[in-house]
């Protein structure tokens, strides 16, 4: 566990600082991540790829933190009278987190724009081709290529 802590602490703490924009919250998030990793190690479950496990735990704890923050801030639950506001806000935060990660995957500008317009803005391929001034077949290729890169990245 010491080796994992030494290898990943700076990376996770830097990531947490970017997510929280607050030193204290980043420290709390980092500590919670390492606590969850330690608890996972104590279960004696075989781990195929340590890096994937660590970042999956980090992402899940970040999403949980955002959800809890929204519930506290609005003082309502997602099952309350107006769940769409919280769900939409949470979806936007998660979308921003995902698109930040997309830029690290190595998508070209056209692939990234096509991916965002198709999956987040729910535009059709024709609408995207009009917007990006590109053929529909090119947009289909950009989406295919982007999906392959995303799939490859998250299947590591």
How would you characterize this protein structure?
- The chain starts with a helix and ends with a helix.
- It contains seven helices and no strands.
- The longest helix is centred in the middle third of the chain and has 25 residues, at 50-74.
- Helix content is 80%, strand content 0%.
- Helix 2 packs across helix 3 and helix 5 packs across helix 7 (136-154).
- The protein has helices at 2-20, 23-42, 50-74, 83-105, 109-119, 125-132, 136-154.
- The protein is elongated and about 55 Å long.
- Mean pLDDT is 79; it is low at 76-85.
- It has two domains: 1-102; 106-156, Arc Repressor Mutant, subunit A, CATH 1.10.10.
- It is mainly α.
Describe this protein with a few key phrases:
mainly alpha, 156 residues, Arc Repressor Mutant, subunit A, elongated, 2 domains, 80% helix
Summarize, please:
The protein is mainly alpha-helical and 156 residues long.
Structural class: mainly alpha
Approximate shape: elongated
- Average pLDDT figure: 79
Question: Total strand count, please?
Answer: 0
Number of helices: 7
In terms of DSSP E residues, the strand content is under 5%
Largest sheet: none
Radius of gyration equals 19 Å
Structural domain tally? 2
């Amino acid at each position: 566990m010491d080796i994992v802590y030494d290898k990943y602490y700076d990376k996770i703490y830097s990531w947490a600082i970017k997510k929280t924009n607050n030193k204290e919250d980043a420290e709390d998030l980092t500590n919670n991540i390492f606590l969850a990793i330690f608890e996972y190690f104590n279960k004696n479950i075989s781990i195929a790829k340590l890096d994937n496990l660590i970042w999956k735990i980090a992402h899940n704890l970040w999403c949980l933190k955002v959800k809890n923050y929204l519930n506290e801030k609005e003082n309502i639950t997602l099952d309350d009278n107006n769940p769409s506001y919280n769900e939409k806000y949470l979806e936007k935060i998660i979308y921003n987190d995902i698109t930040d990660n997309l830029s690290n995957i190595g998508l070209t500008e056209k692939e990234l724009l096509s991916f965002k317009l198709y999956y987040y803005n729910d535009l059709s391929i024709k609408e995207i081709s009009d917007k990006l001034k590109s053929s529909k077949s090119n947009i289909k290729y950009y989406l295919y290529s982007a999906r392959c890169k995303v799939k490859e990245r998250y299947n590591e």
